[in-house]
């Protein structure tokens, strides 16, 4: 359903160059404990009623997770240097993992950009598909595995091309496992499965971080990738769906509570521990449009998050359409560089605690040459690390 537009203002700024960004040297020394509250029911995108899949069966139970973690502790043998060093990468597409020939051809097409050190491959994408031959049982059970390449072959191909391998993993934006086990997804109070739109419009369920099965499923995938020799893992979609305010009227109080971020940070910390225990490092990625919309639970309280490396995804296609909130429409015009500059100006206060963030520049509506020009803009804001694609 469409959002109300009455009362919105159109947010425009003059295009200009902005310089300077002061690095913050925060000391993370406060020990905090996270208590997760399980057993939530969820509501969908309807003003009067929830949108649900009517798949309730007698005897189905909600899966609860009750995990306590100390945000001041770090486990494993991961190197702190690997999280703070400058990161320069180029991302491939899922189609590039069709077979070894396609992968090698894609590696040969990487532009000669000074400083590119890592090649990122999309191993688990939004929606739930997995583009390598996973050995995780639930991945096979829910028919998520779409690729035939084994992880060791992917690592070898990237190494042979002179780069370091990095794996991209989408976490909770996954509709495949919930179709196998509805208790891994958001459930409304009456027990039916919540979906993010009407069925006619392609509505789908999401994995919920309140399910221990969901969290451990992603954790097992992270473990599998890290143990295969990937030097870095970037984990995206550690977020809640974009619930509207009206949805909260149907939701348990816990979901409207400002402490709901603790569930996401606990999951992210588990993924981090899984990665570093096998000698890899892990970054969390957040969507640029989510930042503008305020859907930033994961990074709102940095002290709770053991992961200190943040990737900010500036998708030129998405922001070019405008970003709509209840009160504001953010418009982006001009070149990819112009749009990048405006985005960074709008979000500089939100990202002030992450002055070492990695900026991902992506979009199919612009060529790699435009993205490379946009890369120059991020330097003006003090960001050294980048990902193209």
Number of strands: 15
* Oligomeric form: single chain
**How many whole angstroms does the radius of gyration measure?**
21 Å
Structural category? alpha/beta
Summarize the helix and strand pattern as letters: EEEEHEHEHHEHEHEHHEHEHEEHEHE
Number of helices: 12
Descriptive overview:
Helices cover 27% and strands 15% of the residues. With 389 residues, the chain is α/β, with parallel strands linked by helices. The longest helix has 16 residues, at 212-227. The strands form four sheets. It has an eight-stranded parallel barrel with strand order 5-6-7-9-10-11-14-15, surrounded by four helices. Strands 1-13-12 form a three-stranded mixed beta sheet. The protein starts with 8 loop residues before the first strand and ends with a strand. The relative contact order is 0.17. It has twelve helices and 15 strands.
Descriptive key words:
single chain, 389 residues, alpha/beta, 12 helices, 27% helix, 15% strand
Q: Helices, strands, pairings?
A:
Layout: E1 9-11, E2 34-35, E3 52-53, E4 68-69, H1 80-84, E5 88-91, H2 100-108, E6 118-124, H3 137-141, H4 151-160, E7 164-170, H5 176-180, E8 193-194, H6 212-227, E9 232-236, H7 253-256, H8 261-276, E10 281-287, H9 288-293, E11 310-315, H10 316-320, E12 323-324, E13 328-330, H11 336-347, E14 358-362, H12 368-380, E15 386-388
Parallel strand pairs: 1-13, 5-6, 5-15, 6-7, 7-9, 9-10, 10-11, 11-14, 14-15
Antiparallel strand pairs: 2-4, 3-8, 12-13
Helix pairs in contact: 2-4, 6-8, 11-12
């Amino acid at each position: 359903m469409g959002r109300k537009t009455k009362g919105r203002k159109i947010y425009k700024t003059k295009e200009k160059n902005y310089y300077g960004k002061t690095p913050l040297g925060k000391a993370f020394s406060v020990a905090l404990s996270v208590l997760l509250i399980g057993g939530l029911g969820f509501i969908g995108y309807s003003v009067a009623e929830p949108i649900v899949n009517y798949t309730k069966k007698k005897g189905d139970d909600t899966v609860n997770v009750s995990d306590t973690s100390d945000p001041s502790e770090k486990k494993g043998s991961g190197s702190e240097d690997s999280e703070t060093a400058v990161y320069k990468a180029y991302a491939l597409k899922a189609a590039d993992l069709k077979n070894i020939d396609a992968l090698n051809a894609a590696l040969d097409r990487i532009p000669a950009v000074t400083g590119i050190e890592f090649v990122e491959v999309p191993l688990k994408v939004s929606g739930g598909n997995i583009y390598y031959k996973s050995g995780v049982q639930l991945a096979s059970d829910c028919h998520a595995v779409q690729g035939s390449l084994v992880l060791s072959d992917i690592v070898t191909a990237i190494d042979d091309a002179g780069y370091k391998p990095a794996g991209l993993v989408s976490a909770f934006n996954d509709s495949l496992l919930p179709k196998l086990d509805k208790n891994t997804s958001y459930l409304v109070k009456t027990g039916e499965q919540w979906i993010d739109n009407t069925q006619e419009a392609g509505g789908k369920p999401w994995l919920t971080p309140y399910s221990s099965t969901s969290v451990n499923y992603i954790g097992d995938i992270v473990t599998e990738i890290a143990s295969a020799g990937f030097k870095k893992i970037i984990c995206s979609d550690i977020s809640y769906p974009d619930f509207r305010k009206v949805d909260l009227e149907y939701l348990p109080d816990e979901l409207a509570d400002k402490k709901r971020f603790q569930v996401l940070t606990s999951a992210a910390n588990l993924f981090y521990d899984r990665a570093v225990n096998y000698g890899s490092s892990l970054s969390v990625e957040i969507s640029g449009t989510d930042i503008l919309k305020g859907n930033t639970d994961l990074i709102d309280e940095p002290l709770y998050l053991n992961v200190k490396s943040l990737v900010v995804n500036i998708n030129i296609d998405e922001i070019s359409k405008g970003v709509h909130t209840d009160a504001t429409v953010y418009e982006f015009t001009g070149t990819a560089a112009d749009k990048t500059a405006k985005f960074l100006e709008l979000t500089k206060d939100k990202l002030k605690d992450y002055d070492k963030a990695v900026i991902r520049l992506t979009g199919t509506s612009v060529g790699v040459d435009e993205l490379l020009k946009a890369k120059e803009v991020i330097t003006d804001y003090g960001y050294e690390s980048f990902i193209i694609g």
